[in-house]
């Protein structure tokens, strides 16, 4: 079991960990696809989204808004339709309406009493600012892909975060839902990690990646993590 007393800062992935990105993406893409006579189930949409996004983020850096526009364009290529300008912007424009998971805000407020809180997110500064309002806590540092000019799982994003946090690695605990984007890289750099496995009770494809490198702790949600941290 992790000794939470050794940590001074918790670094968080945002979308999928704190913010319900699946419902956000589905809310934008499902009506768009249906408008073009493309009826896919939720896991098919999320799997394709993850595939297209990962491919784009491996290339030369472009802003996340452009990544999302190109993802929509790739859905069009895959299923034989040409998205309108409004449709190309639909996912990015919807981010301002994406909400935290039901347990997120209360858990963050509890954790804020004990730790410095830091965001490491594959997003643009302006897009995260929308989400920050929903999260209702003040983060000590916010590191975005726009600042790093790269996307997780790149080491670069974590190096920038560690530099900004300015604490020994053994005092930083990284918390994330994506094994692919976060857990593997964080562990490789010597960080302790908590896998928030919000899809544990869901059937179908594991959108967040297989657990190739084991986290130090697995929890089903942030409420559970906050409860563990509050124990003496």
From TrEMBL:
Is Hydrolase given among the entry's keywords? yes
Please tell me which top-level EC class this enzyme sits in.
hydrolase
* MF (Gene Ontology): (S)-2-haloacid dehalogenase activity
User: Is the Thylakoid keyword given for this protein?
Assistant: no
Q: Which residues form a coiled coil?
A: none
Alphabetized, the UniProt keywords read: Hydrolase
Give the superkingdom in one word: Bacteria
Look up the EC number in the record and give it. Answer: 3.8.1.2
- Entries under Gene3D superfamilies matching the protein: 1.10.150.750, HAD superfamily/HAD-like (3.40.50.1000)
Cross-referenced CDD domains: HAD_L2-DEX
Question: Record's PANTHER family?
Answer: ACID DEHALOGENASE, PUTATIVE (AFU_ORTHOLOGUE AFUA_6G14460)-RELATED (PTHR43316:SF9), HYDROLASE, HALOACID DELAHOGENASE-RELATED (PTHR43316)
In its UniProt entry, what is this protein called?
Haloacid dehalogenase, type II
Organism of origin: Nostoc punctiforme (strain ATCC 29133 / PCC 73102)
